[in-house]
Amino acid sequence: MSMDSHLHISKLTQFISSCDSLYPAKIYSLPSLISVPNSRTKKAESWRVIKPLFSAANGEQSVAQEEALLPQLRKNGVLSGNDGGSCYDKMPRKRRVFFLDVNPLCYRGSTPSLDSFAHWISLFFSQVSLNDPVVAVLDGEGGNEYRRQLLPSYKTNRKKMMQQFPAAERSTGRSKKLVMDVLQKCNVPVVKIEGHEADDVVATLVHQVLHKGYRAVIASPDKDFKQLISEDVQMVIPVQELDRWSFYTLKHYLTQYNCDPQSDLSLRCILGDEIDGVPGIQHLVPGFGRKTALKLVKKHRSLENLLSAASVRSVGRQYAQEALTKYADFLRKNYEVLSLKRDVNIQIDEQWLVTRDAQNDSIILSSFTEFLNKTRDRKWQSKSQPHGLKAVT
C-alpha cells in the first residue's frame, strides 16, 4: 500500500474516532466484533432484478422516472415478477429484525469502494430499516475454506479477480475497520465469526429470531439467501438501476421461479452455479438441462427425495435415471456446498433486538461521506503535483 493510501486511511480513522465525543454510541452491549474459533470439524445464474411489490424508497425517485426505466430493464431481461398487489402488506405484523450483509455493500461492481458503502448504508437507514433492530454481519477469516475442501473450485473466480487488483485495493482490513466503526456509531452490532462466511452466520441468526417470534429481513444482493425466504423471511436488495433498496418476498420468489425456495436450492445443485464455481450435472450429462431438472424437482420436492426415489425405482427417462444414480454423491456434495448452515457457534443477544436509536444516523453518515469526498480531492491534488509523479524506467 502506498504512503498516500496509509495517510488517507489514517485520517479516516481519526475522523471516525472524533465522532465518539460528538455522537457516542448508545450502550446495550453492542459488540465491536464477535469472533470465535472455527467450530467445524470437517469441512450462473446472474442476479436478476425483480420489480418490487413494496418499494423501500420514500419518494426519492418519482413514479414517472421508475416507469420510464422499467421497459428498458424488461427488454434486457433484467426485470421479471408480478407487478400487482402488495405481499408485504399482507404479512403478519410481527416485529422485524434486519440482518445486514456488509461485504457486498463495500464494492462498486468488483472494485472495493467505501463510497459505495456510504451510499447504500445511508439509503438503508433513511428509507428501509429506520429504527428497527439491525445486526450487521461480515465474512470471517478463512470462511470459504471448509467449502473449498469439499469443492476446490468454490469461488475461485472471485479469488482470481481480487488478485488482479493493486495491493492497496486488496488490503481491505483497515477499510473494514472503518466500516465497523461507522456501523457502531449508528448503534448496530457487528458480528464476524472466524472460519464462517457471513451467509451461514446470517442463516443461523435468522433461524434463532424466527423461534423468538420475529420476522427477519436480509439486506443483501446475494442470491444464496433466497433459499431462506418464507412468509416470515424477506430480502431487501440494493438495486443499482433504480438507486434504491427494494423488498423481495415469497410472492416474488414464487412468481419468478414457479417453485418453492427449497426446490430452487435443489435445482442449483443439479444445474450448478457458475459464479460460485459449482459445476452442474450437464457437464457430465449434456442432455440433463433445466427443463428436466425442474420437472423432477417439482415432483419430488427436494434433491434428497429425488435421489432416494431414483435409487429404488425409475423416476424419468433413462438418461436422467442413470445420471441420478451414477452421480448421486456428486449432487449431494453440491448440496452441502450450496446450502446455508444454521449451526454456527453464535447466539442472538436480546439486547440486539431492542429499538435502535437512529437519532445520529444522518449526521454520522453525511459527515463520513463528506470526509470521503475531501479525502478523495486531496488524493487527486497530491497525484497532480509534479513531485508526485514517478519516472518511467
Q: Would you mind describing this structure in some detail?
A:
- With 393 residues, this protein is an alpha/beta fold.
- 46% of the residues lie in helices and 9% in strands.
- It is built from 16 helices and eight strands.
- The strands form two sheets. It has a six-stranded mixed β-sheet with strand order 5-4-1-6-7-8, with helices on both faces.
- Helix 1 packs parallel to helix 8.
- The longest helix is centred in the C-terminal third of the chain and has 24 residues.
- It is elongated, with a radius of gyration of 23 Å.
- The C terminus is likely disordered.
Q: Count all strands and give the number.
A: 8
Largest sheet geometry: 6 strands, mixed
Unreliable spans are 21-29, 36-55, 57-67, 72-92, 160-171, 385-393
Note the run of SSEs as H and E. Answer: HHHEEEHEHHHHEHEEEHHHHHHH
Rg, rounded, reads 23 Å
CA(first)-CA(last) distance? 21 Å
Query: What portion of residues is helical?
Result: 40-55%
% residues in beta strands: 5-15%
Adjacency order of strands in the biggest sheet: 5-4-1-6-7-8
Q: Write down the overall mean pLDDT.
A: 78
Please tell me what the overall shape is: elongated
What is the structural class?
Answer: alpha/beta
How many helical elements? 16
